Amino acid sequence: MEAQGEKLLQRLADEEQQLLKKIEQAKEEAAQIVAEAEKRADGVRREAAERADKAAQERRSDAERQSGAARDEVLERAQKDVTEAEASAKKGSEGAVKRILEQVLP
Asked: What is the Cα–Cα distance from 17 to 24, expressed in whole angstroms?
């Protein structure tokens, strides 16, 4: 009976050792899975950041084009107004000179 008890204890000790090995293997596998998940997450974050940067750059470029077009339109209108004002001033000054000459030289 004592030998049978010792065999049972030995078997329990062996099973405990096997379970401890399995637990250790499971921990190692879990650590590998976590490391792989972190690596993938880093890649996803990097890709998302790159896409966000690209989208922001595209929006900046669009905004710059639109503001440039608006600026050009304002400058074009201002130039037209200046040209019209110059023409009007020239016409007015020619008329004024003509009237002065008519008064001075009858």
From this structure: 10
Six token digits for residue 57: 């750059």
pTM (whole model) above 0.90: no
Q: Decide: residue 72, CB within 10 A, 0-12 exposed, 13-18 middle, 19+ buried.
A: exposed
Handedness of CA 71, 76, 78, 79 (dihedral sign): positive
pLDDT of 25 > 90? The answer is yes
- Quote the distance between the C-alpha of residue 26 and its chain's center: 40
**CA dist., res. 82 & res. 76, Å (int):** 10
Q: Sorting pLDDT into bands at 50, 70 and 90, what band is 57? A: very high
